[in-house]
Amino acid sequence: MADSNTHIDSDWLSPPGDTISDASEERGWTRHELADRLGLDKRKIDRLIEGEIPLSEDIAFRLERVIGSTAAFWLRREAYYREGLERKRRAERLAEWTDWLDILPVKQLMECGAILKSRLVEKNKPAIVDGCLRFFGVASPDEWHRVYGSNGTTPGRYRRTSTGKSDSGAIAAWLRLGEIQAENWEGPDFDRTCFEEALTEIRRLTVVSPRTFVHSMRMSLKNAGVVLAFIPAIRGARVSGVARWLSPTRPLIQISLYGKWNDRFWFTFFHEAAHILLHGNSEKERNAIYLDDLGDGKNSLESAEEDEANRWAADFLIPPESANRLLELKTVDSIEEFSKELGIHPAVVVGRLQHEGIVPQNRMNGLKQRLTLMPSSHD
After folding, report:
1. At 216, is the secondary structure helix, strand, or coil?
2. What angle do CA 256, 258, 259 make, to 5 degrees?
3. Is the pTM above the cut of 0.85?
4. Which of 82, 165, 296, 316 is 20 to 30 A from 262, comparing alpha carbons?
5. How far apart are alpha carbons 185 and 229 in whole angstroms?
6. Terminal-residue alpha carbon distance, the chain
7. Which residues contact 253 (CB under 8 A, 6 or more apart)?
8. Are residues 132 and 106 in contact, defined by beta-carbon separation less than 8 angstroms?
9. What is the pLDDT of residue 151?
10. Is the pLDDT of residue 296 over 70?
11. Pick from 312, 331, 143, 170: which is nearest to 239 by CA?
12. Sign of the four-CA dihedral 64, 70, 72, 75
């Protein structure tokens, strides 16, 4: 949220020296006499009155005895002046940083309430920059680049499954929305055994409605010490999900519902869960951020970690001993019967058949369901 004091009127911003000078003139004192009464060098008095040096506690108590009021008053006067100067300098810097807005999804951040709504015109841009800095929790665009990396991608931290074009600012904004939601989350430290048990329970939820499984997923994962965040997709980010460790004891699974079909949703979730299980055993792995675009699979970035996560998710949903029967599934009835035996939604089976080329991409889609974004509040 932008600070109401971003714009400072320099016409009324005055140093404590103005008050000191006025009080001296009322008493008919020259600066030499004021210096003598305060026991200070005249050059120091000149600099103090001009605001070139700060008013110290020692001088505040001298002023209390010589001119009146209290030391606290003089110190408050000094603090207000210095704060005003810094706010003025800060407002000037904000005006210099407006080019940074060109790489951020400003309008979308306004739409979701992350920053205050205002017209994106030149006179408003410094305040918008201030709002974006507060949203990201950084002091300047330089710190933003350090935290989120060059062009919004921290080298050595982001792991992507696609080389397709993405908007780095949109990715950073989407990740930050997940961080903010996780900041309000309270729960136990991560427990691997509880997490594995939770995943078994969640697998059974593929057949129920989102209204039912959202609450159950969150509660199961919360008991295991895992944060689950549903964050609406940011245009340009092209991210379906992310797995990351916010701290050594706090993993986060963040889902955007990019794609919005339930087969993709469930595979994305278990893919991210696999990263937490398989790739959270060292400090280097826990510093990585696994960004996944599980769209059309084009321009796929091959890596051992992604291959492991893909295989784990595929095998967890459809065990290898059952996957041998996939080639036999030619009809809707056979897919539904097979899905019922495994206790999973038919869409998951269709998605696997299409991915492996057993069924064309344009067939059996009637067994899939579109999902709307789940509520973002924590249960």
Report:
1. helix
2. 145
3. no
4. 165
5. 10
6. 26
7. 221, 226, 227, 228, 229, 241, 242, 243, 269, 272, 273, 276
8. yes
9. 45
10. no
11. 170
12. negative
